[in-house]
Amino acid sequence: MNAEVRAAIHRVIREQGGQNLAAVRLGISKGYMSDLLKNRRQPGSDLLKRLGFRKVTDTRLEKIV
Fold it and tell me: What is the pLDDT of residue 29?
């Protein structure tokens, strides 16, 4: 997970007074929050948007040798 996104999640956790309250505030399950913090899952586009981010993808082509 991107360091800025991780910092934003931790900021919400501090502001809400805990991981479970932050999950409620962000509209995600406690299990999903736990998975995010343990790097088992990546944040989806809805969560990124709630945190003030958007996913940008870069399509690159590579020559097959």
Answer: 98
pTM above 0.90, yes or no: no
As given in the structure block, the two tokens for residue 19 are 């991981």
Q: What is the pLDDT of residues 35-50, one digit of tens each?
A: 999 999 999 999 999 9
Neighbours of 28 (CB within 10 A): 19
Neighbours of 6 (CB within 10 A): 14
Q: What is the DSSP string of 1-65?
A: --HHHHHHHHHHHHHHTSHHHHHHHHT--HHHHHHHHTTSS---HHHHHHTT-------------
Taking the CB of residue 33, how many other CB atoms lie within 10 A of it?
A: 21
